[in-house]
Design goal:
The complex is a heterodimer of chains A (171) and B (416).
Chain A: E1 2-10, H1 17-20, H2 32-36, H3 47-50, E2 56-59, H4 71-78, E3 83-86, H5 91-99, E4 104-106, H6 108-116, H7 118-121, E5 125-129, E6 134-137, E7 140-143, H8 149-157, H9 160-170
Parallel strand pairs in A: 1-2, 2-3, 3-4
Antiparallel strand pairs in A: 1-5, 5-6, 6-7
Chain B: H1 2-10, E1 20-23, E2 27-30, H2 34-44, E3 55-58, H3 68-84, E4 88-90, H4 97-103, E5 112-115, E6 129-132, H5 135-144, E7 147-150, E8 154-160, H6 169-180, E9 189-193, H7 202-210, E10 219-221, H8 226-232, E11 253-258, E12 265-267, E13 275-277, E14 288-292, H9 293-296, H10 299-309, E15 319-323, H11 327-336, H12 338-344, E16 347-349, E17 370-373, E18 390-393, H13 396-405
Parallel strand pairs in B: 2-3, 2-5, 3-4, 5-6, 8-9, 8-11, 9-10, 14-15, 14-17, 15-16, 17-18
Antiparallel strand pairs in B: 1-7, 12-13
Classes of the chains: A alpha/beta (171), B alpha/beta (416).
Bound molecules: iron/sulfur cluster.
C-alpha cells in the first residue's frame, strides 16, 4: 500500500470532531458523499470544495478530539483523503479510523518537520508506505508504528463491518 | 481497577496494559444514532441481535423531532426495537440516555458498559467501566456481542479538602481539565480518590466522570462504596460484586487537587480546557443560559439554580432554557417546587432531552450570541451556529446567577 499525495497543513492543536463534521448534521441520514460536502466545514469552509482524491492531511496535536461521531472519519474518507499524518489523535477518532480502515499515521516527527518548513514544503507531495511504515517528503524519511494484531486484521479486512461479517459467518 | 474489570469480563487473568482483548459488555448504549447503526447492522448481514436483553436504546438527541428526517429516524428505531424484542427502550420524553442508564439501574459496579456516545465515561460514577465507542462498533456488538479493547493505563486523581458553599462538582472537573488539558488522559482511564470523594453524591460523581471525556479519557471511575450501594438499593437491575483497585495498584501518574482552593470557574470559548476563575473575567454579557444536559441536569443541579433564582426574574432580554435530564427529574422538580421557581423566574421549560447541547434543535444560538451553559462542550458551533458565537461552561448555579445579571458572575454565597 503505497501512495503519494498533496498536503493540507493543519497545524492547530485540538481540531475537534465538531469542526471536522458539525453536530447539526449528525442526525440527518446522509450518504458518505453527502457527508464529504461538510468535511472540515467549521474549521476551513473551503476545504470540501478544494480537496482532491488522494490528498493527505498533516495535523497537530490531538486532531479529532471531542465526540464519538464517526462521520468525522467517514466524511474525510469520502472526500478522498488518503491518510492523515498527525502529532497525535483523539482516542475515539483513532478507533473509528481503524474500524473504517482509514489510515491515521502517528508520526510527530514528520508532522513537526512539515510545520517548521511549511513555506518551502507547501507545494511538495508526500509519499506514504503503509506496509513499511514510512513517510517521505523531499529527501527526508520518517518511520511510524504500523498497526499490529487485531487492529491490523480489522484494517486488512477493510474495516470492522467486513471483519464482523467474517466473524458472523464463523459462528 | 479497569484492568480488574476487564479481567473479570474477558476471562483473561492479568490483561497487560496495552494488550488488546475482546470483551462482551453488560450493556450497550445507543440513542438517536441507532437509526444509522441499524443500517450498518444490516450491512454486516446480521438478522438477529446477539442478546436483546443487553441492548439499551433511548431517544434523546432530537426530541421531540424538529423535522421529518429525525422523526423518520425515530420511527425506524421503534420498528427495529419491536422486531428484535429489545428489552430496554426509552422513547422520546423519558430523558437523556446517560441519565436513564444510571437512574434506571442498568449500571452496576464491576461491569463494562459500551456506549456509542462520547459521554459514556459517565458510568464510571458507579464503579463500572463506561467506554465510548463509534457507530460501526456498536453495530458490530449488536451482531457479534463483543468488541476489542486496548487495556489502558490509569491516572489517579486525589481530591482532598472541602468545597466552598458556592463551588460545585462542575467547578472541580473544569479545574481538573484546565490543568490536565484536553488530551491529558488520552487512551487512559482516570480514577478518582481522596477523602473528598466520600462526600460526593452519585449525581456529582456522574458530573465528574461525564467530563473525563473532555480530557480524552477512555473511562472515568469512582471505586464503588457505601454511597454507590445506597444509590443502587432497589434500583440495580442485576446483582453485583464490587471491583475495587488493589492496594498496590500501579498508576502511570498522579495529580492532587485541594478543593478548598477552587473558586467558581468557567471554560471560555472554544475549548473546554480554557478555564478561568470567574473573578478574573472581564465583563461578559450573555444572551442565553442553558440549564440541563447529561452533565448537570439532575435534581441537585436544578435545585442549586432554583436557590439562586427564587423570587427573582432573569434579566430582560436574556433567555433561560431548562432541560431536566429525565422525566423522573422533571416530576421530582415539580413536586419540590424547583420547576415552579425556575419557570416563574423566566425559564423556558422543555421536554427532558439533550436540547441545544448539540446544536441540532431546541434553542440554537443566533450569530453573535453568547451562552452560559451547564453542558460539557463549548466548541465553536456546538450550539448550532458558529458565526461569532461564544459558549461559556459553568455550574448550574453559575448559569442561574449569570442570567439574573445578564453577565457572567459567581453564584451568590448567601442563598446556599
Ligand atoms: S446532553 Fe449533550 S453531551 Fe449529553 S448526551 Fe446529549 S448531546 Fe451528548
Amino acid at each position: 500500500m503505497k501512495f503519494t499525495g498533496r498536503m493540507w497543513i493543519f497545524e492547530d492543536k485540538n481540531i475537534n470532531t465538531d469542526q471536522i463534521f458539525p453536530g447539526k448534521y449528525t442526525y440527518d441520514p446522509l450518504t458518505p458523499e453527502q457527508m464529504a460536502d461538510h468535511a472540515m466545514e467549521d474549521y476551513l469552509p473551503t476545504f470540501a470544495n478544494e480537496v482532491k482524491k488522494g490528498d493527505i492531511l498533516i495535523t497537530g496535536k490531538n486532531f479529532g478530539s471531542g465526540s464519538s461521531r464517526e462521520q468525522a472519519v467517514t466524511c474525510l474518507k469520502a472526500a478522498g483523503v488518503a491518510a492523515v499524518v498527525g502529532v497525535s489523535f483523539g482516542r475515539i477518532f483513532y478507533r473509528n479510523a481503524i474500524n473504517n480502515a482509514f489510515p491515521l499515521l502517528l508520526c510527530p516527527q514528520a508532522a513537526t518537520f512539515i510545520f517548521k518548513n511549511k513555506e518551502s514544503l507547501k507545494d511538495e507531495k508526500i509519499k506514504v508506505d503503509l506496509v513499511e511504515g514510512t513517510i517521505s517528503i523531499k529527501d527526508k524519511n520518517f518511520k511510524f508504528p504500523s498497526l499490529k494484531g487485531e487492529a491490523l486484521s480489522i484494517f486488512k479486512a477493510g474495516g470492522l463491518l467486513e471483519y464482523s461479517k467474517q466473524k458472523l459467518k464463523e459462528k | 481497577m479497569i484492568q480488574k474489570i476487564i479481567s473479570n469480563v474477558s476471562g483473561i487473568k492479568k490483561p497487560e496494559e496495552g494488550s488488546i482483548v475482546f470483551v462482551e459488555p453488560h450493556r450497550i448504549l445507543t440513542h438517536d444514532n441507532s437509526a444509522a447503526i441499524i443500517s450498518k447492522f444490516r450491512t454486516i448481514g446480521a438478522r438477529k441481535v446477539w442478546n436483546p436483553e443487553k441492548i439499551f436504546i433511548a431517544l434523546d438527541h432530537a426530541v421531540p423531532p424538529p423535522d421529518e428526517k429525525k422523526a423518520a429516524n425515530h420511527k425506524k428505531i421503534r420498528h427495529f426495537v419491536n422486531e428484535q424484542n429489545i428489552k430496554y427502550f426509552y422513547d422520546c420524553g423519558a430523558g437523556i440516555c446517560h441519565q436513564l442508564l444510571a437512574q434506571e439501574g442498568h449500571v452496576i459496579p464491576g461491569v463494562v458498559i459500551f456506549g456509542s456516545d462520547s459521554h459514556t465515561t459517565s458510568h464510571g460514577a458507579l464503579g463500572a467501566a463506561g467506554i465510548p465507542i463509534g457507530r460501526t462498533e456498536a453495530a458490530s456488538i449488536w451482531a457479534i456481542g463483543q468488541t476489542w479493547l486496548k487495556v489502558p493505563e490509569t491516572i489517579k486523581i486525589n481530591l482532598e479538602g472541602e468545597l466552598a458553599i458556592n463551588v460545585f462538582a462542575k467547578d472541580v472537573i473544569l479545574q481538573i481539565i484546565g490543568k490536565m488539558r484536553s488530551d491529558g488522559a488520552s487512551y487512559k482511564a482516570v480514577e478518582f480518590h481522596g477523602s473528598a470523594t466520600e462526600n460526593f453524591s452519585i449525581s456529582e460523581r456522574l458530573t465528574l466522570c461525564n467530563m473525563v471525556a473532555e480530557m480524552d479519557g477512555k473511562a472515568g471511575m469512582f471505586p464503588a462504596d457505601k454511597i454507590t450501594d445506597k444509590y443502587l438499593e432497589n434500583r440495580a437491575l442485576d446483582p453485583y460484586k464490587k471491583v475495587l483497585p488493589d492496594q498496590e495498584a500501579s498508576y502511570i501518574s498522579e495529580e492532587s487537587f485541594n478543593l478548598n482552593e477552587i473558586t467558581p470557574v468557567v471554560s471560555k470559548p472554544h475549548n473546554v480546557d480554557n478555564v478561568s476563575p470567574i473573578s478574573e473575567l472581564s465583563e461578559i454579557e450573555v444572551d442565553v443560559g442553558l440549564l440541563g444536559t447529561c452533565t448537570n441536569g439532575r435534581n441537585d443541579d436544578l435545585e442549586a439554580a432554583a436557590k439562586v433564582l427564587k423570587g427573582k426574574k432573569i434579566k430582560k432580554g436574556v433567555r433561560l432554557l431548562v432541560y431536566p435530564a429525565s422525566q423522573t427529574v422533571l416530576l421530582e422538580g415539580m413536586k419540590s417546587g424547583v420547576i415552579q421557581t425556575l419557570v416563574e423566574s423566566g425559564g423556558e421549560l422543555a421536554v427532558p432531552a439533550c436540547g441545544p447541547c448539540l446544536g441540532a434543535y431546541g434553542g440554537c444560538l443566533a450569530p453573535g450570541e453568547t451562552a452560559i451553559s451547564s453542558a460539557n462542550r463549548n466548541f465553536k458551533g456546538r450550539m448550532g451556529c458558529k458565526e461569532d458565537t461564544s459558549i461559556y461552561l459553568g455550574s448550574p448555579a453559575t448559569v442561574a446567577a449569570s442570567v439574573l445579571e445578564g453577565k457572567i458572575v459567581e453564584p451568590p454565597k448567601e442563598v446556599f
